Amino acid sequence: MASLLFNFFKRAIIVPVIVTAIVIGALYMAIPKYVNEGQARPTSVNERIDLSQYSVKEYNSFSQLKAGDYVGTIRCDNIDLGNTAVLYLSENDNGVYVESGSSEPWNGGSVLIIGNDINNQFGKFYNSEKGDKIELEFYSRDTYTYKIQNKAVGVTKKEINNYLGDGRLVLAVPFNDFSNLGGSFFYTLYIAGKA
After folding, report:
1. Dihedral over Cα of 153, 157, 161, 167: its sign
2. pLDDT tens digits, one per residue of 172-181
């Protein structure tokens, strides 16, 4: 009877615990490799974006653009972003886009830019710090320089509007909200003011 009980205990508890520990250990070893690969993408701050892959037209207002139109580029001197293309209301899962309701900086409004995929260049903002300078170069206007003033973590989509204000740039990096099976996100925000 004791042998039978030990075999049950071994199969029901000991083996699953050991297998779980091995899987967790393997993930612990593998995940930093993928994170480091995402950081190590070679980019050049001086590289130019190939506009032939985007829908490009001159505009004075974001409202003149259609979903997926090219808005401009975003750069950060202290983060290896290179020149990251910013689109208008992109449905692309890997895109970086200006959210509806944003207003052009030349009209004194706030710009909300969301990077859909944390594995793309935009996801490197997690390395940014207060005081980092960000440049937005718009297709039809000049370059605007901002400085990161604050960071907010765990912000819901509805709460983002609380961080918008005249002359602000808000960069939002979404993360899956695994506590909600509806596929929702929470965001890490980088709030910047004009430099």
Report:
1. positive
2. 888 766 555 5
